[in-house]
Structure formats: C-alpha cells, structure tokens
Amino acid sequence: MPGILDRERIIAPAGFNRWLVPPAALAIHLSIGMAYGFSVFWLPLSHAIGITDPAPDDWKISTLGWMFTLFFVFLGSSAALFGHWLERAGPRKAGVVAACCWGGGFFVSALGVYVHQIWLLWLGSGVIGGCGLGLGYISPVSTLIKWFPDKRGMATGMAIMGFGGGAMIGSPLADILMKHFATPHSVGVWETFVTLGAIYFVAMMCGAFGYRLPAEHWRPAGFNSPASAEQRGMITSRHVHVHGVFRIPQFWLLFVVLWMNVSAGIGVIGMASPMLQEVFGGTLIHLPAALKDLGTNERAQVATMGAGFAALLSLFNIAGRIFWASLSDYIGRKTTYYVFFVLGFVLYCLVPFAGRTGSVPLFVGLFCMILTMYGGGFATIPAYIADLFGTRYVGAIHGRILLAWSAAGILGPVLVNYLREYQVKHGVPVGQAYNTTMYVLAGLLVIGLIANALVKPIAPERFMSEAQLVSERRPAEAR
Amino acid sequence: MSAPEPEGQNPAGASWVFVALAWAAVAIPLGWGIYRTLRTAAKLF
User: Fold this and answer.
1) CA nearest B2 in A: which residue?
2) pLDDT tens-place string over residues A152-171
3) Pick the CATH number of A18-217 from 3.30.160.250, 1.20.1250.20, 2.40.128.270, 1.10.10.60
4) Which end of chain A is more exposed for a tag (fewer CB within 10 A), N or C?
C-alpha cells in the first residue's frame, strides 16, 4: 500500500475541484519567497552583539549578503539535481522535504545567531534552506500543468507570482516580530527565525498535503487543443525524458532565453533604487542639486523615495508574473518572449533618454514595465518547457533550466557593478554612469531574442516511445 | 494506442466552499503584504 506521501496516494477522485491546487502551490511559493526579503535581517544582525551599535565581533553586512548567493546557487542546483526524483516521488513528498529544509533551515540559523556562528547561518538558511527553495519552487509546476492543460501559463504564473510576493509578507512580518522580541540583551533575530521557521513549516506542510494529481489521461471538461495551427506545432502531446535533455538544442535555447531575460532584470533590480537617486538627486524633492551636494536630511528623504521605488518595482514584478504568463496562453509562449525581448530592448534603450530629460514619471514607468517582463519571464518558462518537451518531466526539466537563474545571479550584478565602476573611474559623471550599462543589458536581450527565434519544435526521435512511457509509469519496485 | 481520455466531471457545490477557504488562506496574507508594499511605494509620489 502506498505511503501517505507517495504519488499513488494523491491521485484525485472524480469530481475533484482543480482550483484547490493553486492555493496549495501558493502556500509553498509564498513561504519560500521570503528568500527575497532576507535583507530585513542584515541591519539587526550587524549589531547582534553590540545591540545598539556594532561591536568589533559583530558580522559585517557584506558578509551576511553572501546568503543571497547561497540561496540562488543552491536553489538552482537542488532543482536541477532533485527534479527527476520529484517526478518519481510526487509533489507531496517533495513539498514535505521542502518544508523540512526551509523551516528547519530557519531553526539552524536561529542557533547560529544564538551562538554567533556565521557558518551555522550559511548552512541553515543558505545550504539547507536553499535546497528547500529549489524543491519547493519546482514542486507544483508539473502538477499545475497537468491540472490546467488549457491554462498552463496562468496556472504556473499564479504559483510563481507567490515566489515574488513572499517577501511582501515575510519582510514586514519579520520586522514586527523583531520589534516584539527585541530586549536590552537581544536584537530579537533568533526568536524571529524560530517563529518564522514554525510558520513556514506549517504553511508549506498545508500546501504539500493540499497537492493532488489528476488521474492518467484526465482532461478538463470541454478542453480543446489550441486553435491555431502554428500554436499546435509548438505544443507537443508527447514527452521527452529528462535524461536526454542536455543533448537537445531546444533545451539550451530556452536556457539562454531565461538566462538573458533574468540577467538583464537582475541587473536592473540591483541598481534601480540607487540609479533613481543618483540620476535625479535633489530634483526628487524639488531641490536643484545633485545627490552628493545634499545634506543629511535631504539625502534621507531621497533614500526614502528610493525605497518607495523599490517597493513599486516589486509590485510590478509580481503583477507581471500572472499577467504575462496568462497572456501567453492566448498569444503563445514564443510570441510572449518576442514581446519581452523586443519591447524590453526599446525600454532599456529609453532609460538614458528619460534620465537626460529629467522626467521622473517616464523613468519610473519604464522600470515598472521592465520589471513586469522580468517576472513574466520566470512565470512563462514552465509552460514553454511543457509545450516543447511534454508534461511528463516538465518539473525536472524546469529544474535544470533554473540553473540559468544561478548563472544570471552572477552575470547581471557583475555586469552592472563593474561597468558602473569602470565608467566612474574614467570620469563619467555618476548620474550618467548607468547609460552604457543599460545599452549592454539591452544587448543581452538581443541575444535572448535570437535564441528565442531559433526555438523550433523538437525532432520526433527525441521523444519517449510508448514502451518507455509504460515502463516509466510503473512504480520503482515493480521494475 | 493511447488510453481513452476521461473528461473532467463538474465539481460538487461543497467543493467550491473549500476552494473559497483555500484561496482566502493565501489571499489574505498576500493582500496584507501588498497593502504594506503600496504604503511604502506611496512615498515615491
């Protein structure tokens, strides 16, 4: 008899309402999305010993910032490594493991803060939590695509929107908890980690136990295949095995598509707020002065506006995830990425113009639009993979393509930071130092555009035969 | 030859109550987070 976590145990009965599955996926994605909000802990942790001011033994913010690198390296790696296991074990088991890793990672980190050992923090949230991120991120993808063959983009967009929105809940909640737990002898971080770990563990377990799989060959009532002949050509009803995927050119083309889209977006996210402040300076608060000429109070006001800008961008980031992914169900995935790359190219090239004209609304509007396409790129890729490679191993293949995210986490910030430094060193005014960077990021989108244009339906011999499919469907012990 | 494809059945009325509850469980915290973010974003204007 299958165990409570096994995939055979979670096949939905007839009449099951498929709209129960997206909230389960959202519960997991909203929890792991807190990874984006971890910077809320950096300032309190930088004076965890000194309490009011940093002590000599306190951690530096730059040291703590390595957590983000660990998050995204382990997210990509674990998604790639365990994706195939997930497809065999089922989403519930993967969701439970993700809950144990993400929640447990918080507990290990709490111990690290309590005994003031940075390696425990990195091990807890960075390594163990990072594995939870990877498994949790891909756990609902293939399930949602199987439940929503008619709305693949919208279904995965909803879940991936949760990953973008997790920090919106987690950051203010962590702030409230740290204030609640703070005492004259503690900044309240380890207590907050324990509380958040428990909350996320429960939320993710609820999500994992909410997963149900449709019966084999299930189709929603009245489901019709995509109408246009062109779309039908780009949507297969067959399945590629994950093991052979590295040898298929379309895998690498989608890898480049995601890599370029995310690299450009990550670069923008990192520099948007300082760029707003440096380009417009005092004009943001109606003072005709550059940022360096402002006093402390005026700088603080400008910084507050920069924080507001960052918050606005995060809203557009999550809105883009559901909007573009849903739209892709109607216009096709390839067309959606064409829009990202062509429109994105124009928008990136217009940013220096907006800076020159001094138009804050135009500048803000351009970035908001760019951020919708950054989020949209993440949310549309699972459906693109399912269309090309079939649904059997979509979670595992998506996991491998997410390595592009890890690669983008290196390429985007490196490009932006080094280009800016190089220009400032060679005498370019600070307010204009971003212009070349924007053109370089637009160039990345051209590479993505070419890769997208080269995506064609996969050759028939790459797909699994009927005999292979039957063999794969049998439980492991029967093989 | 592939197996016949069963059509989905219409879910029972009670299941929509569960759907509403499940969505509320995720939408309420997300709505709170969006509200907090909007308050921060308002400082830009």
Assistant:
1) A466
2) 999 999 999 999 899 999 99
3) 1.20.1250.20
4) N
CB spacing of B33 vs A172 below 8 angstroms: yes
Name the A residues in 309-348 with CB < 8 Å from any B CB. Answer: 309, 311-312, 314-315
Query: Into how many domains does chain B fold?
Result: 1
Q: Flag whether B37 is in a domain.
A: yes
Q: Contact A165/A33 with Cβ under 8 angstroms?
A: yes
Cross-chain Cβ contact A16/B11 below 8 Å: yes
B-chain CB neighbours of A27 within 8 Å are 25-26
Q: Which CATH superfamily is domain A227-479 in?
A: MFS general substrate transporter like domains (1.20.1250.20)
Q: What residues make up the domain containing B33?
A: 16-44
Provide mean pLDDT across the span B6-23: 78
Beta-carbon pairs below 8 A across chains A and B = 103
Average pLDDT (A461-476) is 78
B11 belongs to a structural domain = no
Cβ-based contacts of A217 with chain B (< 8 Å): 2-6
| B9 belongs to a structural domain | no
- Chain B nearest-CA distance from A443, in A, is 30
Tell me the pLDDT tens digit for each residue of A99-125. Answer: 999 999 999 999 999 999 999 999 999
| pTM for this model (two decimals) | 0.89
Residue B6 belongs to some domain of the structure: no
CB contact A304 to B (< 8 Å): yes
Domain ranges of chain A: 18-217, 227-479
pLDDT (0 to 100) of residue A458:
93
Question: In this structure, which amino acid lies at residue A390?
Answer: G
* SS3 per-residue string spanning chain A: CCCCCCHHHHECCCCCCHHHHHHHHHHHHHHHHHHHHHHHHHHHHCCCCCCCCCCCCCCCHHHHCHHHHHHHHHHHHHHHHHHHHHHHHCHHHHHHHHHHHHHHHHHHHHHHHHHCCHHHHHHHHHHHHHHHHHHHHHCCHHHHHHHCCCCHHHHHHHHHHHHHHHHHHHHHHHHHHHHHHCECCECCHHHHHHHHHHHHHHHHHHHHHHCCECCCCCECCCCCCCCCHHHHHHCCCCCECHHHHHHCHHHHHHHHHHHHHHHHHHHHHHHHHHHHHHHHHHHHHCCCCCHHHCCHHHHHHHHHHHHHHHHHHHHHHHHHHHHHHHHHHHHCHHHHHHHHHHHHHHHHHHHHHHHHHCCHHHHHHHHHHHHHHHHHHHHHHHHHHHHHHCCCCHHHHHHHHCHHHHHHHHHHHHHHHHHHHHHHHCCCCHHHCCHHHHHHHHHHHHHHHHHHHHCCCCCHHHECCHHHHHHHHCCHHHC
What pLDDT score does A201 carry?
98
Per-residue pLDDT at A86: 92
So what's the pLDDT on residue A38?
A: 87
